[in-house]
Amino acid sequence: MSGTTDIYARLSLDRAGDELGVQRQVAACRKFAAEHGWTVRKVLVDNDTSATSGKVRPAFEELLKSDPERMVVWHVDRLVRLTPDLERIIKLGVNVHAVTAGHLDLSNPAGRAVARTVTAWATYEGEQKALRQRAKNDQLAETGKPYKCQRAFGFERDGMTIRDTEAAELRKAADGVLAGRSLNALSKDLNQRGIRTATGKTWRTTTLKAALLSPRNAGLRRHRGQVIGPAAWPAILDETTATALRAILTDPSRSKRGPDRRYLLSGVMTCGKCSGPVVGAFVKDGNKGETYRCQKIHVTRKAAPIDEYVLGLVARRLAEPDAADLFAAADHGDELAELRDELTGARSRLDGLAEAFAAGDIDRQALAAGSRRLRDRIATLEAMVGALAVNPAVSEVASAEDAAEALAALPQDQQRQVIDALLTIKLMPIGRRGADVWEGLDIEWKGSK
């Protein structure tokens, strides 16, 4: 019997990311097709993709649209595990050949009945497995232990032991976020240095954000989407850092920030006429090149001389013996300690409510009301801690033996953070040509008397 066939392969979970599982399926299907004299027209693969999660399977959808003469799969459950998907296959009116489970003739009622029975049992098996896994996960959660699943970045496969090299990268990225660096810039830095995710893939802003926000890294146990208490494994990030990260990365205004700023003082300076923000732009007219200007074009000035002047001004001031006084206003140590104590107490009371409910001391209504009040207070405290967290870039410069040298060594986005912490800068209109750079700048030191 001659003709063509399409091959479909799928693996639900590819822990190593090497696609060896689906490659073995495809090899077996090719051999099966050759033995039957069929020419393989297409090979379609959904790797690391569940057939029961409800998510779209790209290769499966392509298979349905490709009008195959027949299909070859390693096992029927690689193709379908849910009845709605089977019905879509039945509508094609083609036969399905499974290397390990025989032939399903979907052209007649008997064959379709067999296919529906096989799929029903596959669905049952999946549901039973899910119930067993959920019960096991509940037991693990009660003891603060991790699930046996894909390795998390920063931890070994046992989920309990910290992998020091990756933990250091998480701390570095966390410091970057607190210093005002964008997730995009931090992801690029990781990729350029050859640092990969736990699955061996390149970093994206979404994966880095998820890693930094993971309660696991703060030594907290999450179960069914809720943090339920301390974990049995050690924390990579201290509580203050984790809380500050959450405040920053969940701030809705971050989604409106736009692309990374290329200019040192973009967003730091304001227009001396309209008080609007001053941004950097490349202006071709008049050969101006890189410039600063307000959005209403009240002021326009070449960027390089201003950058050089402001960096020099800050560097000279930081070289003075009393430079540390500039950062005194940013010291919220006592206030942070009080907030952290209150936050710890609120979380303890929340745990106590759950224990009281479990013991029958309070009813569900009291549990819900008390939990709502405490969660609201915890959210407020977390935001306050995040707002007072010391910017690592400012701390690094303030504590350096040579503050001016430390400033020069920082990436531009962190230099911007330091300048913004120290100075208020207005770009002023100048009515004459040939004026010095400083004449067009109105600069005040923040916190100065």
TrEMBL record:
GO MF annotation list: DNA binding; DNA strand exchange activity
Keywords: Coiled coil
SUPFAM superfamilies membership: Resolvase-like
Source domain of life: Bacteria
Entry-linked Pfam families: Recombinase, Resolvase
Coiled-coil portions: 329-356
Ranges where the Recombinase domain occurs: 152-255
UniProt name for this protein: DNA invertase Pin-like site-specific DNA recombinase
